[in-house]
Design goal:
The protein has 315 residues and is of the alpha/beta class. It folds into 2 domains: 200 residues, Rossmann fold (3-Layer(aba) Sandwich); 90 residues, 3-Layer(aba) Sandwich (Rossmann fold). The chain contains 12 helices and 10 strands. The strands form 2 sheets. The protein has a 6-stranded mixed β-sheet, with helices on both faces. α2 crosses α3. The mean pLDDT is 92.
């Protein structure tokens, strides 16, 4: 696809048609916010952690593999874990060789998932930026095709299909809370909605990539730490998503690591939903009061990943 063209609803719709038979249409769950001790009001969860490979990333991975021409040398991805697992899954499904670079902070659950899919796994450096640099050197050497986790047109088009599904299944919502790392997910979703609902970006205080970009007026380096560092802590947000987010994201809020842990615990104890830290971050904004809905506001929260070893089944 032409990288110079915008991420549009029409292209997202076409991408959904292309990837439909390879992904799951994940369900929504509607409850009342009073179930969590909050002021009463409709609350909808989009359960994208039920997607193949345990996160929304499978959408962008399949979009890249199906909409671009793959060389014989295969594909390469740098990832904190979820993108790598998704590319490994999609590549295995389509019979394409894949090499995945991850940093040392990647959780064991995500490393094991990548290995199960048969990809060549390389652990490189302590942070996502280190893994990305190593992947770029590998691409120069082998000619393999890079599948960027968030700054790639096809990636955003794939992630935008989350918005398409949500609008069809929950057309009544006023507001959607979305966790932000590099921004591929919120970039695709905001491109789909085109300002028709409020989109609230949620980031960990220790990895404020979008906050830093909005303050500077462009993507800039930001801290990359915290409990969700393996999914929400790239060095900076993508150029493609920033062009969309700066005009379509209604509000951006920060949450603490403690709030994220509390959100994980609440999702499990009240709904029996398992979410990794990055997957629970958006709900943390609502639960902690960093985002306070107006009376009657119909809120949706995207639970975007579940690749964690934090739940034990003892009998």
């Amino acid at each position: 696809m032409d990288q110079t063209k915008p991420i549009t609803r029409e292209r997202i719709t076409a991408t959904e048609s292309a990837i439909r038979c390879y992904i799951r249409r994940t369900p929504i769950l509607t409850t009342d916010s009073s179930d969590f001790g909050l002021s009463p009001g409709a609350l909808t969860f989009k359960l994208e952690m039920l997607q193949h490979s345990g996160s929304f990333k499978a959408r962008g991975a399949f979009a890249n593999l199906l909409l671009r021409k793959t060389p014989a040398s295969g594909v390469v991805a740098a990832s904190g874990g979820n993108h790598g697992a998704a590319v490994a899954f999609a590549a295995h499904r389509l019979g394409v060789p894949a090499t995945i670079f991850v940093p040392e902070i990647t959780s064991p659950a995500k490393i094991e998932l990548i290995r199960q899919c048969g990809a060549n796994l390389v652990i490189a450096g302590s942070l996502y930026a280190d893994a990305l640099a190593a992947s770029e050197a590998h691409i120069e050497k082998t000619g393999a095709m890079a599948i960027h986790a968030f700054d790639q047109v096809e990636t955003l088009l794939g992630q935008g299909t989350v918005g398409l599904e949500l609008e069809e299944d929950a057309p009544e919502i006023d507001t959607l809370l979305v966790a932000v790392g590099g921004g591929g997910l919120i970039g695709g979703i905001t491109a789909w909605y085109e300002g028709r609902i409020r989109i609230v970006a949620v980031e960990p205080e220790s990895a404020p990539t979008l906050h830093a970009a909005l303050a500077a007026g462009r993507p800039v380096d930001a801290p990359a730490g915290g409990i969700a560092a393996d999914s929400l802590a790239p060095r900076r947000v993508g150029e493609l998503m920033f062009a969309i987010a700066r005009t379509n994201v209604t509000e951006a809020v920060l949450v603490t690591d403690d709030a994220i842990r509390q959100a994980q615990e609440a999702l499990w104890s009240r709904l029996r939903v398992v979410a990794e830290p990055g997957g629970a971050a958006a709900f943390a904004a609502l639960l902690s009061g960093r985002y306070r809905p107006s009376r009657g506001e119909r809120v949706a929260v995207l639970i975007c990943g579940a690749n964690t070893t934090g739940v034990r089944f003892d009998g």
